[in-house]
Amino acid sequence: MISSLFNKNLGTINYFQKGKSPKLLLMSGTHGDEYGVIQPLKNIIDKYSEKLPDFIFIPEVSPTAVKLKTRRNKFNHDVNRNFFENTDDPEAKTVMNIVANFNFKMGISFHEDIEYDSFYMYDSEKMDAKMLNNFKTNVKKLGVGLYSGIDDVHDVELGATIQDGYVVDPAAPDKIKVGDFWHWSLINKYVKRLLYPEIPSSLTIKNKLFLIDLIFKDLIFPLLNERI
Ligand SMILES: [Zn+2]
After folding, report:
1. Which residues in 176-211 are b (16+ Cβ under 10 Å) and which e?
2. What is the pLDDT of residue 5?
3. How many CA atoms within 13 Å lie on the side-chain side of 188?
4. Segment among 6-10, 154-158, 164-168, 218-222 with least mean pLDDT
5. Per-residue pLDDT tens for 52-91?
6. In sequence order, which ranges of the chain are alpha helices (DSSP H)?
7. Contact 107/185 with Cβ under 8 angstroms?
8. What separation in Å is there between the alpha carbon of 142 and the centre of ligand 1?
9. What is the residue range of 43's domain?
10. Structural contact between residues 179 and 81, judged by C-beta atoms closer than 8 angstroms
11. How far does the centroid of ligand 1 lie from the alpha carbon of residue 2, in Å?
């Protein structure tokens, strides 16, 4: 149970740490209007906490945005545009201070898409086709669609083209100025591989639980080469 894990805090950010050498970073609550993914994610981490390797879990990257249930936090910032050196956002700064202590093999920041009712996911590296196709087949079995199109929410400069629920977005040093956690954590090598699943916020709690469970079973465990 995550409640029995070492519950820590730095400034206003609460987080959980399992073990001394976390290799997995789990995050949610970056955008406060995407709060609906936090509780189902906590339930699934509870389910797998014994089997997972050492990890850090930050349920609310921006606690003031989650409290307000808005994309921006109480400092009127989109936190995910404030991950860069000398940021003046206290929440981004604190999360950076936590993350920069580690070299994570893998990071997953759970977001919700409040606009589309189908699923998609960003990946910093191209996933093995067999693994990806197996995951997509299981998503479709839940009756959840796979989004194709342009997303300009997480990439202000160029809208990323998402195909069949998946897009590879390698980090680029010139994009650090965007302030997305993506580029900051990857370019600085705090995180080796990063995924941003975008869970449709319109899904029922039951389907959010199924979908997050699939992300652990079909992607996180195999990518970490851990047995379930
Ligand atoms: Zn988001």
Report:
1. bebbbbbbbbbebebbebbbbbbbbbebeeebbbbb
2. 81
3. 20
4. 154-158
5. 999 999 999 999 999 999 999 999 999 999 999 999 999 9
6. 38-48, 63-68, 90-99, 129-141, 181-187, 205-214, 221-224
7. yes
8. 23
9. 2-224
10. yes
11. 23
Give the Å distance between the CA of 71 and the centre of ligand 1.
Answer: 8
Kindly tell me if the per-residue pLDDT of 16 is higher than 80: yes
Q: Looking at the 3D structure of the chain, how many domains does it have?
A: 1
Q: How far is the CA of 41 from the centre of ligand 1 (A)?
A: 15
Q: Which of 26, 214, 198 is nearest to 134 (CA)?
A: 214
Task: Categorize the per-residue pLDDT at 225 as very low, low, confident or very high, splitting at 50, 70 and 90.
Answer: confident
CA of 35 to the centre of ligand 1 (A): 10
Residue 153 clears pLDDT 70, i.e. is over it? no
pLDDT score of 210: 97
Joined together, the tokens standing for residue 228 give: 């379930």
CA dihedral 69, 70, 73, 78 (to 10 degrees): 140
Q: CATH number for the domain including 183?
A: 3.40.630.10
> 153 CA distance to ligand 1 centroid (A)?
8
